[in-house]
Fold this sequence. Notes:
Distance between the termini: 18 Å
Number of domains: 2
Radius of gyration: 26 Å
Shape: extended
Structural class: mainly alpha
Amino acid sequence: MTRRSHRMQKPRHVLSGSALTLVLTLLVAGAVADQGWGFSAIALGVAALAIGGLHLIFPQGPLFALGVANGLAVYVCLYAVLGRAAFPLALDWARPLGFLLPVASFVAACWLRRRALLRLAEGLVPPDLEHLPRFARWLLFTAVVGVMSLATPINRLPPFEQSVALLTAMAVISGISAAAVRDVVRLLIDIAAILQTVTARLAHLAVPIATYISIFALLSVVFGCFYRIADGLSQVPLFIQLNQPARLDFSDALHFSVVTLATVGYGDIQPIDDGIRLLAAIQMLSGQLLLLFGFAEIMRSTPALLHEVASSRAGLASREPEPGRAASPTVTRREVAGE
């Protein structure tokens, strides 16, 4: 198969992968807008650079795109939080440049090693744990840079010196990301393959999940009605809100019912009547029994899931290429892209 034909992806999978990445990146960019809308715009631009660059090299199925988008989202969050903690006075021009360096370095390394990485992406290999120690080693090196940035008194330096320290730290991380490119790509491929298996498993769990949600909603509504009717028929309020006796409307009663059934216990609404407390205790017990029901249904579906996984692995083994014979890129691309 030629490189040109390899790059011809089905529009549906390309669009779904790109849309999934865009939605997640927009969500994270909106969340870090407290750093300034300029930083959010730069985060979107860097994500577009990374996704566009990787799209030219690897099969861009929705599950592979999800792994890339997840990695970018985590990187944005860590950079926003740790960057402000370790380099609070860094100049405005240094922050986007420091953010760009590791991503640009990783994409450039992927491009320079694209042929070897493309063969890795096309290789018919199931997920394994052999490469994880190497990936953990690179992750440890990156963590050391972050810890040193937080442990040393860099945040007491003047703004220009903090900017230089920020760019130096990100340049070191850029070198680490470029050196670890093969292990990172292999991890992304493994994540895509595992997500494909998990997606197939969810089909067996659709009925138990739907049943659990239905019963949870039923119990929430029924007990919410009990709370509202009991409070409405009582001569005195049976609940307190904001440390004051208060009557519940239906939305408040439904909120209290959901919180009680989930055993979250926000404490914003509290019962002060013994009968209501007993009713809430019964609802909490019902919630625990419902949780056990859901767990039992999942465990009952486990033998079928294990059989499916075993069959999938047997199919992979039967499709492994003979010694000296190249693997089929068509089959493998579907495995990696989640088609």
